[in-house]
């Protein structure tokens, strides 16, 4: 596929991942195995409060086709079929969930040297339609997305964004929630491998005149260990430790504190992902 500006969902993604990815408040264990036929199996168990859930997922790839299926403890079956280059520079994704067939949808991504276009259509009689377009280059991109509900004839969302990406940093501004919020973020990488970084994000909600300012980052202690932290102006402090206990298997320990109410019980989460 052509090297272009990326998807609209990539705008601001680096900052979002640094501030939210892998922060957890429950206990999670996942074990992955691979068969000789090329099928990857992953079993996941999650305990949150007094409730335990789990699922089993299988993934199989053949040439330009990827097939995923997941079954959870409530007997919901989710399937996803991804095919690359049915038409050159495209990716087609079809998803279906049993027994809720109405949640199924088909997505088509088109990649061009200076533009990307995505469309998603629900698989029901009066489907929801999502459309996004991004223009630019890998260094500079601007785009917009919109959602339309055909049953009611209304726009469910419209968002616009712009991003600037350099080897050592990236910045973005996103106008979302139908124009009610504006979010600006900046990420600066501290090493060439981009394993250590600092991030700042500010969000303004116009309807409530509320501002949220968050700073954070990640630091590679060594080749096997990463620590992350985030703090916002409301006093929420999150910390995270990730350590590769054996090759490809990662232990994650996360916590979140309210620094303005230290008498409250902090939240802790632990996750262990075992891979062969």
Automatic annotation (TrEMBL):
Segments spanning the bilayer are: none
What keywords sit in the KW lines?
Answer: Ion transport, Membrane, Porin, Transmembrane, Transmembrane beta strand, Transport
Pfam families (UniProt xref): Porin_3
Q: Where in the cell is it found?
A: Membrane
- Keyword Transmembrane listed: yes
Determine the domain of life of the protein's source.
Eukaryota
Gene Ontology cellular-component annotations: mitochondrial outer membrane; pore complex
The molecular function terms of the Gene Ontology recorded here are: porin activity; voltage-gated monoatomic anion channel activity
Q: What does this protein do?
A: Forms a channel through the cell membrane that allows diffusion of small hydrophilic molecules. The channel adopts an open conformation at low or zero membrane potential and a closed conformation at potentials above 30-40 mV. The open state has a weak anion selectivity whereas the closed state is cation-selective.
Protein family? Belongs to the eukaryotic mitochondrial porin (TC 1.B.8.1) family.
Identify this protein by name: Voltage-dependent anion-selective channel protein
Q: Which organism is it from?
A: Coffea arabica
Gene behind this chain? LOC113702333
């Amino acid at each position: 596929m052509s090297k272009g500006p990326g998807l609209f969902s990539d705008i601001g993604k680096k900052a979002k991942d640094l501030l939210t990815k892998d922060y957890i408040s429950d206990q999670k264990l996942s074990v992955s195995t691979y068969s000789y036929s090329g099928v990857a199996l992953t079993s996941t168990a999650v305990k949150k409060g007094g409730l335990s859930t789990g699922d089993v997922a299988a993934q199989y790839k053949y040439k330009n086709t990827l097939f995923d299926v997941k079954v959870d403890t409530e007997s919901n079956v989710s399937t996803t079929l991804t095919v690359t280059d049915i038409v050159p520079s495209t990716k087609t994704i079809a998803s279906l969930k049993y027994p809720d067939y109405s949640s199924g949808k088909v997505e088509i991504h088109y990649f061009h040297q200076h533009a990307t276009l995505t469309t998603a259509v629900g698989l029901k009689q009066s489907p929801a339609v999502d459309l996004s377009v991004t223009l630019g280059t890998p260094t500079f991109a601007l785009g917009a997305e919109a959602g339309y509900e055909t049953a009611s004839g209304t726009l469910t969302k419209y968002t616009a964004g712009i991003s600037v990406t350099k080897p050592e940093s990236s910045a973005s501004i996103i106008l979302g929630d139908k124009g009610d919020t504006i979010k600006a973020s900046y990420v600066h990488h501290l090493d060439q491998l981009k394993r250590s970084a600092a991030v700042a994000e500010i969000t303004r909600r116009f309807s409530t005149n509320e501002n949220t300012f968050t700073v954070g980052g990640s630091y590679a202690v060594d080749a096997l260990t990463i620590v992350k932290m985030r703090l916002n102006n409301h006093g929420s402090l999150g910390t995270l430790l990730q350590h590769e206990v054996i090759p490809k298997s990662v232990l994650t320990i996360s916590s979140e504190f309210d620094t303005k109410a230290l008498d409250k019980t902090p939240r802790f989460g632990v996750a262990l992902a075992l891979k062969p």
